[in-house]
Amino acid sequence: xxxxxxxxxxxxxxxxxxxxxxxxxxxxAAIAVFNERIMPIFRxxxxxxxxxxxxxxxxLKNYIKPSHEETFLSLRDQGLIDVKSPKxxxxxxxxxxxxxxxxxxxxxxxxKTRKAEFDAFAAWIEACCNDDELLxxxxxxxxxxxxxEHPDAxxxxxxxxxxxxxxxxxxxxxxxxxxxxxxxxxxxxxxPQHKKPAERQLELVxxxxxxVNLFQDTPEKTLQQWIxxxxxxxxxxxPMLNLEDPRKSLLILKPTAKLPAKKEDGEFEKPxxxxxxxxxxGLKIHVDDQSYKAIVAWIQDYSNVVGNRYKSVDDxxxxxxxxxxxxxxxKDCPETxxxxxxxxxxVHQWDEQRAxxxxxxxxxxxxxxxxxxxxxxxxxVFGSNADSATSDGNSPLAAGRYRISVYVDQRHRIAEDxxxxxxxxxxxxxxxxxxxxxEGFKQAEIISFGDAAE
Length: 454
Hints:
- The chain is an alpha+beta fold.
- The chain folds into 3 domains: 15-139; 160-306, no CATH class; 320-451, Immunoglobulin-like (Sandwich), CATH 2.60.40.
- It has 12 helices and 8 strands.
- It is globular and about 85 Å long.
């Protein structure tokens, strides 16, 4: 005869068995999904759909650990899984970001991979969140979550959208130096002043082919074309973007080159795209001016991104300037500065509230000493809020009091690294200025080094 306590135990076991069975089934379901759909992503030698938005520094497999449980705990504790709303998990939103890519071609190329990854993670996360025991588990002491080895700032820096934004500011903004020969989309057929430029551009296309049309109608299309063309190795021309030696890119060699030599009949020889490079358009950019600096800096940054050379935040370039149409000219440079010496001019604004000069520069430019002892340059404004198209009061370069700090590269730092910013060892003096900062070369603000206070 069974005792009441024995009967109670049997009842407890009967009630418990279905619960335990459900938990085991949920755990088995999650493991099965992980093994069948997540592990193939982890083991695949092919890059994940992350490459659609990131040029380097991250891959979806960076977030996967060898076991189902460890992967769940890792993602959950990093906030990448929402246990209350599994479908809203951050890891799913990150995978889904590729749907928002403005590049339609890129969306189509990665669509199949992206969908497979999203569906796999969505099914696995749903199964995990149905396992109450798994939800309660905590990682063991010393547990290391799975994540990319690069800091978040480096991962963001390698985003394709960030690289394109930098391209727009540093390269695309300089395209009118190449007008009209290489900028067919900037020619306005309804503008009478563009009649001659249009004829010139058409002649060049007939003579040299469509390769003349370097700039497409958007920066994205332009950059994509240059990237593709630069992957084609040829002995007849240097690459448009030389990732091994940015200063040997045709993008910067052509506009800094002179006209081809003339033949005996007076006609120009064919322009060269190998060293020594020559350019039918002649000199458009001076070596070591602000445009040269910006373009070389962008190529160097792009090379480092796709080469996955940035490992820490300290490795990242500032890349925080915006081009403007405002000019600064300094005259009366000392005879002790040889012609061609790079000079950097940093613009500091007066702070009325604190009655002192701002320590951080608002803008800067770079130029070289000319035979007339002048340095010219268009200003680049630091920060993301710069407005390069207007002169209204919202611009960081509003009319007011400014101090120009003059740095001279007599140690040849820029020759070694065109992206370098000079420091206090190169400071030659400060010049006070009441500036209007109107647009255009004819309305440049003019200072004299003779007014400099050391």
